[in-house]
Amino acid sequence: MKDVTELQIYKRAMDLLPRIYELVNQLPRNEFELKSQVCNSAKAISAQITEGFAKKNSQNEFKRFLYMALGSSDETITHLWQIRILNFSNVNCGNCDALIEEYKVESKQINSLIQKIRNPISNV
């Protein structure tokens, strides 16, 4: 793999960003902190995957950044649950639920890649 954009976890993280922004734009203006937190955690996923990929010659460094991306994905899920639980009247709950499920898949796939790096299949 030559480019980070070939990684499915990177593609999903980037594809989900516009949907996150659409959702947070439905939040009340006074919820600027929650908006900022969910956007920052969602943006961090692809950035951490990219930084780790740049260091892929060191498995430990790549894994370290993948763990950070996993944490950011899980943090995004938490913020989405907060939005869901706070039940803002102008937020589409269906969109929120769909994003939660998408980020759960993202977290599982990041974890799967971490496990593959941790336990590489021998070519022998």
Automatic annotation (TrEMBL):
InterPro entries: 23S_rRNA-intervening_sequence, 23S_rRNA_IVS_sf
Superkingdom, natural source: Bacteria
Coiled-coil regions, chain positions: none
Pfam families tied to this protein: 23S_rRNA_IVP
Protein name: Four helix bundle protein
Organism per entry: Candidatus Jorgensenbacteria bacterium CG11_big_fil_rev_8_21_14_0_20_38_23
Lineage: Bacteria, Candidatus Joergenseniibacteriota
